[in-house]
């Protein structure tokens, strides 16, 4: 990457962060996207986060629409540009899609037939939420370190 490219990416990222600071996530997404198109792995990852339904829900962002397909595209691009965290996000998207597509009625029959209890299922769900909370906390920390802070408004 040429020095002028790096300077331009830094400028775009700074503008994106300003948009985040004022709560204008669509504007932040546009700046991050331009920086990603200039070759920034960090920016591509930030664009992926800006489309990621789990991340948007976790931060409570308003005025920004999640899109799993776009999140996947941008995480793939971040991975291709060398972002090590992109693989984990791609796996998380796949897992959330698999859970979404799994019929909920499959587990209902077992519980009603005595094959399991609501309490046991609740304990597993709580453990999954705790693991998800730790993952979201890591993402938030990575974004703050990388300077691409998203925050709820």
What do you see in this structure?
Helices cover 76% and strands 0% of the residues. With 153 residues, it is mainly alpha-helical. It is flat. Residues 108-130 and 144-149 have low confidence and may be disordered.
- Using only CA atoms, what is the Rg? 18 Å
Q: Helical stretch count?
A: 8
Major beta-sheet overview: none
Oligomer: single chain
Question: Which regions are unreliable across 5 or more consecutive residues at pLDDT < 50?
Answer: 108-130, 144-149
Work out the helicity level. over 70%
Give the N-to-C terminal Cα separation.
Answer: 35 Å
Provide mean pLDDT, rounded: 76
Number-wise, the strands total: 0
Name the helix and strand elements from N-terminus to C-terminus, one letter apiece.
HHHHHHHH
* Helix/strand structural class: mainly alpha
Shape: flat
Strand content: under 5%
